[in-house]
Design brief:
Elements (H helix, E strand, L loop, with lengths): L1 E6 L5 H9 L2 E7 L5 E6 H7 L4 H4 L2 E5 L2 E12 L6 E8 L5 E11 L5 H4 L4 E4 L3 E7 L7 E4 L8 E3 L10 E2 L8 E6 L1 H11 L11 H9 L1
Parallel strand pairs: 1-4, 2-6, 7-10
Antiparallel strand pairs: 1-3, 2-3, 4-5, 5-6, 7-9, 8-13, 9-12, 11-13
Length: 215
């Protein structure tokens, strides 16, 4: 994906506020040299952020007429308004080794024996996976085939096929579950438990005692 950025000369809270009032977003590009402050068109960035690939793939940033590859590293949003406050990018090249969360695309769920024959449901335990690889080898997404899942079975990280030279970052977890099969009875038990009535506390006698004291 491509986007256009412009050099940002003025810095500070006041300058950033004026920038946002003008429909721009302040940002920074770091890594592989001196950090550079930038500004971007808010509407163009806001629409780009709705696309999954903008978060997980290499981006071509045009700055001062030159193109360089970057990764999106951080986005700061307004607490309740649809407003981007700040954005961070990292410069990368073919030799840069990166860690990045990549979205999981689940396929063939409806064709699995668990769903098709046993009328079970498949719960997606995680929807993205952090991986480590060279920037040039970063996959836009990972495909998880659920077509062979059977009743009572779970799919783990070790069960999915990763591209060459792409390694999962597990952070101490041996083999996390990606998806698991549950029966419809198990799925319905959760909301029923949540809807269980809460016992009411016994009324206090504080007010009655207060009236008696007044007498």
């Amino acid at each position: 994906m491509k986007f256009v950025a412009f050099p940002r000369e003025l810095q500070g809270t006041g300058a950033s506020r004026r920038l946002r009032n003008a429909g721009k977003v302040p940002g920074i590009v770091y890594g592989g040299g001196t950090p550079v402050t930038i500004e971007l068109d808010h509407n163009a960035l806001f629409h780009a952020l709705k696309k999954e690939a903008f978060y997980s793939s290499l981006l071509d940033m045009e700055l001062d007429g030159k193109s360089q590859q970057v990764l999106l590293r951080d986005v700061q949003m307004h607490p309740f308004k649809p407003l981007v406050l700040h954005v961070d990018f990292q410069r990368v090249d073919a030799r840069t080794r990166v860690t990045k969360k990549v979205p999981l695309h689940f396929v063939n769920e409806e064709n699995s024996p668990a769903v098709k024959l046993d009328k079970c449901l498949v719960s997606h335990v995680i929807t993205d996976l952090e991986v480590e690889c060279l920037a040039a080898q970063l996959p836009e997404y990972l495909t998880v085939d659920l077509g062979e899942l059977t009743k009572g079975q779970s799919l783990h990280v070790a069960d999915i096929k990763l591209p060459a030279n792409v390694k999962p970052v597990l952070r101490g977890k041996k083999n996390p579950v990606i998806a698991t099969v549950v029966t419809q009875a198990e799925e319905e038990a959760v909301p029923e438990a949540a809807a269980a009535p809460v016992a009411k506390a016994a009324p206090t006698k504080g007010k009655k005692n207060e009236k008696q004291n007044k007498k």
